[in-house]
């Protein structure tokens, strides 16, 4: 399958801070890859390299085989950035038509994309007057009108309600079927789990892990035992079957692959145990666990 | 890069100016209004050659075009940068130089409009006594000669916000224009004004324009403006590389 994004050994420093330290990443045609990690992990720096705003240090970034810092390569790239403010003076139709011409497409390409994103009725409205959800749809229309091979989405559904979010991903699914690759950064981990084919976890400028959401979840405990207990953290860590330990306010969260055995010991050692519950571990737990392990 | 893409960029900029003309109101109406006041008071004076009103087309005209190109592209860039729109342009398939050139080009019709409005005002008050070819040369000299000021404007726009940029650019424009004799003739100003003026591009632009009407050497003025253009281009390039996001 064609690779629409290749990142090899990407590095970047801000002063003494190594924001990226040898990151490798691929996105195939039609694939959706979610980039996850805490604030300061290097996600924004990597995205800026992919969209051509930053050089890749002594590494290499290729979009459809070309350097994204070259304008011609960016014809194959569509970008949806978070919190974009549109000029006060331009109308929806002018922005989408302009995006089509800039991407080398005819002006007429704007109409179908506006219809696809339910923007036709808003065509004559100033973009700055649109609601948050309408602005996101407009950005997506401007990104899609050039028929890009790679879409880079930075928190694309922030501020969208659930139906708008569903519609957003439905439109993207149709584009992916036609071969558009997607690189997504989001803080909504459940969303990544639902829409991404692969997840790449970044922390402190390095790739900690990568794989399908199911693969990442399988690497970590499949149950989380949550409780209020008088036992000390050291003792909790030593309990049989505990593979991860986090505190969450007055509760502790114990990751385990053997919840039954752990519960028996826990109840025996702490008769005053309260608020006990057992949850299935999801992608969020897996990512948090990976980052904790990476930090350890 | 096709002409169509450049056309879209210029059209967007012109729409921005036409639909939200408040910024240009001060940079166009103010110079023309001042010109109208001065030309109605002193326009018919002269020493037998050019009338004061005709000479003022070169001097006030220089102030007018500098005012337009200094305010418009830079403040536009500053606003675009603040709202994230400049970043959106940077990641589009259009080289950023084309976008910036469009901002400058879009301000030129307004610069020409200032000169035309001043010329018409001088004619209506009976203070115009220069042939049309000379006036056309003044128009071309002032509009083309103002381009380096647009680069300076961009350099400021990459670094500060629109509000601060307007204050900063006015703080540059008004004193340098007064010292360069663009508002009142240097002959009636303190002598040290001329000593300072020869180092200012505003002065050389107005003198180059005046030479189209009254004759006189132009090489020094052209060289100074070329030098200023190079310095302004370097400043704009450095400022862009270190632009605040």
UniProtKB/TrEMBL annotation, chain A:
Species this protein is from: Lentzea albida
Keywords: Antibiotic resistance, ATP-binding, Nucleotide-binding, Transport
GO biological process, one term: response to antibiotic
Stretches assigned to the ABC transporter domain: 5-229
Membrane topology: Peripheral membrane protein
The protein, known as: ABC-2 type transport system ATP-binding protein
Residues passing through the membrane, by range: none
High-level lineage: Bacteria, Bacillati, Actinomycetota, Actinomycetes, Pseudonocardiales
PROSITE patterns: ABC_TRANSPORTER_1 (PS00211), ABC_TRANSPORTER_2 (PS50893)
From TrEMBL, chain B:
Transmembrane segments: 22-43, 55-79, 100-128, 134-155, 167-186, 218-240
Keyword Transport on entry: yes
First-listed, main subcellular location of the protein, grouped into a coarse class: membrane
Membrane topology: Multi-pass membrane protein
Segments forming domain ABC transmembrane type-2: 22-243
Compartments reported by the entry: Cell membrane; Membrane
Keyword field: Antibiotic resistance, Cell membrane, Membrane, Transmembrane, Transmembrane helix, Transport
Any one of the GO BP annotations: response to antibiotic
PROSITE patterns tied to this protein: ABC_TM2
GO terms, molecular function: ABC-type transporter activity
GO CC term (a single one): ATP-binding cassette (ABC) transporter complex
PANTHER family with a match to the protein in the record: NODULATION PROTEIN J
Family indicated by similarity: Belongs to the ABC-2 integral membrane protein family.
Name of the protein: Transport permease protein
Organism the protein comes from: Lentzea albida
């Amino acid at each position: 399958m064609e690779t629409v994004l290749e990142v090899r050994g990407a590095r970047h420093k801000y002063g003494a801070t190594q924001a990226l330290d040898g990151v490798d990443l691929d996105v195939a045609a039609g694939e959706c890859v979610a980039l996850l990690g805490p604030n300061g992990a290097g996600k924004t720096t990597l995205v800026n390299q992919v969209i051509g705003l930053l050089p890749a240090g002594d590494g290499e970034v290729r979009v459809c085989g070309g350097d994204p810092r070259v304008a011609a390569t960016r014809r194959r790239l569509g970008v949806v950035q978070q919190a974009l403010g549109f000029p006060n003076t331009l109308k929806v139709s002018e922005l989408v038509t302009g995006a089509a011409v800039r991407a080398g497409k005819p002006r007429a390409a704007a109409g179908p994309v506006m219809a696809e994103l339910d923007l036709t009725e808003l065509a004559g409205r100033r973009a700055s007057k649109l609601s948050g959800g309408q602005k996101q749809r407009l950005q997506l229309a401007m990104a899609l009108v050039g028929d890009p091979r790679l879409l880079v989405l930075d928190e694309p559904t922030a501020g969208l309600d659930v139906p708008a979010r569903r519609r957003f991903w439905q439109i993207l699914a149709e584009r992916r079927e036609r071969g558009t690759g997607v690189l997504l950064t989001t803080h909504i981990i459940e969303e990544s789990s639902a829409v991404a084919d692969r997840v790449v976890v970044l922390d402190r400028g390095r790739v900690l892990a990568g794989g399908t959401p199911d693969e990442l979840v399988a690497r970590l405990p499949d149950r989380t035992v949550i409780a209020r207990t008088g036992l000390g953290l050291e003792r909790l860590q030593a309990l049989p079957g505990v593979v991860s330990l986090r505190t969450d306010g007055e509760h502790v969260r114990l990751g385990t692959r053997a919840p039954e055995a752990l519960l028996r010991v826990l109840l025996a050692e702490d008769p005053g145990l309260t608020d006990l519950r057992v949850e299935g571990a999801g992608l969020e737990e897996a990512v948090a666990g990976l980052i904790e392990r990476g930090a350890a | 890069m096709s002409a169509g893409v450049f056309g879209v960029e210029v059209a967007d900029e012109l729409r921005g100016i036409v639909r939200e003309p408040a910024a240009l109101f001060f940079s166009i109406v103010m110079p023309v209004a001042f010109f109208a006041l001065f030309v109605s008071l002193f326009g018919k004076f002269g020493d037998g050659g050019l009338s004061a009103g005709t000479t003022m087309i070169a001097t006030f005209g220089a102030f007018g075009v500098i005012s337009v190109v200094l305010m418009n592209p830079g403040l536009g860039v500053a606003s675009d940068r603040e709202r994230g729109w400049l970043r959106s342009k940077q990641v589009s398939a259009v080289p950023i130089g084309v976008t910036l050139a469009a901002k400058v080009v879009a301000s030129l019709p307004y610069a020409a409009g200032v000169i035309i409005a001043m010329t018409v005002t001088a004619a209506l008050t009976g203070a115009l006594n220069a042939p049309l070819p000379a006036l056309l040369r003044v128009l071309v000299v002032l509009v083309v000669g103002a381009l380096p000021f647009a680069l300076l404007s961009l350099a400021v726009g990459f670094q500060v916000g629109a509000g601060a940029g307007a204050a900063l650019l006015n703080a540059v424009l008004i004193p340098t224009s007064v010292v360069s004799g663009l508002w009142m003739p240097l002959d009636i100003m303190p002598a040290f004004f001329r000593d300072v003026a020869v180092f200012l591009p505003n002065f050389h632009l107005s003198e180059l324009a005046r030479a189209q009407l009254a004759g006189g050497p132009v090489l020094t003025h052209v060289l100074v403006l070329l030098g200023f253009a190079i310095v302004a281009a370097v400043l704009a390039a450095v400022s862009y590389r270190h632009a605040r996001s």
